[in-house]
Amino acid sequence: MANIKSQKKRIITNEKRRMRNRAVKSELKTATRRVKDAVAEGNGAAAYAAACAACRLMDKAASKGVIHKNQAANRKSGIMALANSVATAEDKAAYVKPAPKAQKTGSKKAAAKEARKAAMAEASAEKAKRREKQLKEEKKAAERKAKEAEEAAKAEAEAAAAEAAEGEEAPAEDSAE
């Protein structure tokens, strides 16, 4: 096992690349087998279509560096020779190139960021509603408290006035005696 940090990282990246290359090579073998099966059946149109698809995969693998470009050219030559042994001119003329797949715009990361942003906006709107409701309740509570304090002050003032009136009556009674 490596002791150097960069070498440890190199081991990890090499393993990732090896697994990716294995998948691509497996795909190439499958494409080649499809061509051979179509030739064995004697189906020229299917053989030609499979050969064209295999050639595209070979070019892709060569551009990614999975196989050497000369090896890709050699394999393509062999596959096309095999397909041409069965395919007729009508088969080649009838071949329709498959429509390119629509490319996804952006990335998963951008999509996740947009989703997070939307969730945050929704949560913010919900929080604003709750905050508004809380402020209304606090305002009502403050008004109710002020009203109760006002009533209590009024009642206290009345009680003080009544006590003062009673206090005036009491000395008058004392003087009457």
From TrEMBL:
Biased composition (Basic and acidic residues): 111-157
Gene3D superfamilies to which the protein is assigned, alphabetical: Ribosomal protein S20
InterPro entries: Ribosomal_bS20, Ribosomal_bS20_sf
Pfam short name (any one): Ribosomal_S20p
Biased composition (Acidic residues): 165-177
Region described as Disordered: spans on this chain: 95-177
One Gene Ontology cellular component: cytosol
Annotated GO MF terms: small ribosomal subunit rRNA binding; structural constituent of ribosome
One of the GO biological process terms: translation
Family: Belongs to the bacterial ribosomal protein bS20 family.
UniProt function note: Binds directly to 16S ribosomal RNA.
Protein name: Small ribosomal subunit protein bS20
Taxonomic source organism: Adlercreutzia muris
Name of encoding gene: rpsT
